[in-house]
Amino acid sequence: MHYVEAFVIIDASNMNDKVPYLEQPCERCGGKKAISKVRNGKLQNLSGVSKIEYSQIICMDKTCQKEFETRLQEKTEKEAAIKLKREENKAARVRA
Ligand SMILES: [Zn+2]
User: Which protein residues have their CB within 5 A of the ion that is ligand 1?
Assistant: First the structure.
């Protein structure tokens, strides 16, 4: 069994591995964390198909979590804008 969190696959064949992670206080407000979403999936790898579990860890503090989501969205939008600008510059160079 594998757990996926923030696009990183953590080998959690030992269920206890999951608990210390949750016990880590929130790095933003120091509050408690919780598993918000668990989704089962399959992952194709060299040794075949392995069952994986996607879990999203959120902060129990609603204000903190909301702020985090807003920031994440801003970051994503910013990165997309930078990428677009870069592609525009590239296209401009090709034309020149
Ligand atoms: Zn928090």
Answer: 26, 28-29, 31, 59, 61, 64
